[in-house]
Design brief:
By secondary structure, the protein is an alpha/beta fold. 31% of the residues lie in helices and 23% in strands. The radius of gyration is 18 Å and the shape is globular. The chain starts with 8 loop residues before the first helix and ends in a 19-residue tail after the last strand.
């Protein structure tokens, strides 16, 4: 969601349709893998946040999940004293989030919105994060500026997404990952699958995008699969591939104080305020 104020509207429509259609099936297939002790964990193998420590202290902090799905992360963070807000493009996924809140006897705001047009005032959050959510399904050239905008100076942005190596080694006609480079690395951006659209950038372009929006890189964690680690998202061959090459990566960023942030051209369209 490419390079203008509203992003890739075609991708927005495709992905909204995709998630509205598959929300129930997704929960049946992987809900068990995202629940309980795996709720507050990262990525395709659910590496615990308690091991990686990407989010930092959350008690008393305003936290936004960009692409919250069923909001299991936020239920866990709320129980630790955070003030969470969940945002998702899919109405059905937000219905699932409400069900999770009810089961936990908790309440927090949920927003139906496009990550490229956050209906949130600037400087509203101490922490924004995304675990294979909207920052994978929406154009980062629009969503990264939006995420930076809603963070306070010193705030943190953390997100897990696809490694570019996963995309360049993907045999799209046969829909499988290979040991051969199949796609140009330079120029990576929009990636069209059968029913959804993803976005991925080369590492250098990620870093330029972060810097242009006043974000500094604290950590880049390229996840290596443990031998025998399960993942319902991946085939046996893909799990073996992930032991040798990164399928996913996790970025940890900090918003620079205003005085240190680089000057950049203002966007023509002002985002809606929450």
């Amino acid at each position: 969601m490419a390079g203008n104020s509203s992003g890739d509207r075609g991708a927005v429509r495709v992905n909204r349709k995709h998630w509205e259609k598959q929300a129930a099936g997704y929960e049946r297939h992987v809900g068990w893998f995202l629940s309980g002790p795996k709720a507050m964990a990262w990525g395709l193998w659910r590496v615990p946040e308690s091991k990686l420590h990407f989010l930092g202290p959350v008690r008393g902090r305003d936290v936004l999940e960009i692409g919250c799905g069923a909001a299991r992360w936020l239920v866990g963070l709320r129980s630790l004293g955070a003030r969470p807000v969940g945002l998702d493009l899919s109405r059905r996924r937000l219905e699932q989030a409400r069900s999770e809140m009810e089961r936990a006897h908790l309440t927090f705001p949920l927003i139906e919105a496009d990550a490229g047009r956050l209906p949130i005032a600037a400087g509203s959050f101490d922490l924004a994060f995304c675990d294979w959510g909207a920052l994978t399904f929406a154009d980062p050239r629009v969503t990264i500026p939006e995420a930076a905008r809603v963070l306070r100076p010193g705030g943190r942005l953390v997100f897990a997404t696809s490694s570019p190596w996963r995309v360049v080694a993907h045999d799209f006609p046969r829909d499988r990952i290979t040991r051969t480079l199949r796609r140009d690395y330079f120029g990576l951006h929009r990636v069209d699958y059968k029913t959804e659209v993803n976005f991925v950038l080369p590492y250098g372009e990620w870093i330029r995008l972060f810097r242009d929006n006043g974000l500094t890189v604290d950590r880049l964690h390229e996840v290596q699969a443990r031998p025998g680690a399960p993942s319902p998202y991946l085939s046996k061959a893909e799990r073996a591939w992930g032991r040798r090459w990164p399928l996913e990566c996790i970025w940890q960023l900090t918003k620079l104080p205003t005085a240190e942030a680089p000057r950049r051209k203002r966007r023509a369209a002002r985002p809606r305020r929450g």
